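Single-chain item
Fold in token form
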Amino acid sequence: MSSEVLSQNEIDALLSALSTGEMSADDFKDEDEARKVKLYDFKRALRFSKDQIRSLTRLHENFSRLLTTYFSAQLRTYVQISVASADQIPYEEFIRSIPKMTILNVFEVPPLEGRILFEVNPNIAYAMMDRVMGGRGSSVNKVENLTEIETKIMSNLFDQAFENLREAWSTIADIDPILSDFEVNPQFLQMVSPNETVVVISLETIIGETSGMINICIPHVVLEPIIPKLSVHYWMQTEKKEREPVEVETLESRIKKAYVPVITELGTSEITIEDFLMLDTGDVVELNQKIDLPLVMKVGEIPKFTVQPGKVKKKIAVQILENLKGGDNDE
């Protein structure tokens, strides 16, 4: 059996085979056991867990939003960039998957070791350059004969674009992206060994009526020092920073000077709207509070104390009897 979705005719055939005895449940078990054996290709060593790949995807989803804002402002046209996929493959396989002539921006990301490759499809790159030079954003693929001016314009555009990676990575590393190389032929670019595992983040890019892919190739050597920060535990935990004694003292003094409303309710009552409309000066409303029971004092609309009413120097006052505890707001 294959992992593909079966058609209704195939399902009916299987049910018929089971009912007639041509196949048994043991046959399915044998196939399931055989399927547990998986071939492992040591050339495609998986150095990153699915959890870490998901974390990298989240980081670059934020990066794609930053790029969308940046290119929209620079090109003054409709730009949409989103993460299409994230996978770990050998460096050699990545090089074979991109065009023979393309736009390759190599960035150093100190203090991390290694370099990151920012590959831009020629259709996208020329559409961007056409917009920067005042055109409509049409794309003409002539990467093999870039002029010095065109090379300078493109390298400056992508150098500034990659600055957004600093903000996108700020939660896991404080990096300083620097454009170290600009190349058009991937065969002339050897960042790591062919079998080195790299993470490739593919960004689907739409500029006006032109669409293409931007690929970010991140070697394992770059991510190795920050791999622990790519786990779910790191993302979920909250760092508790201890405050300095001076800060604590300042906060306490300001809190002590804050005003809060303190209200003591004498009781409540229910009357009809008709009676409410007829109320006048001198009328008496009977409350449901017994005179021999303590009243409730509220601090910021939260019941905090039981009190008894009285007078202090001819002024109405209350005397606190005990604290009220319980509830989520009991602090």
Summary: The CA atoms of residues 183 and 189 lie 8 Å apart. The chain has a mean pLDDT of 80. The radius of gyration is 35 Å.
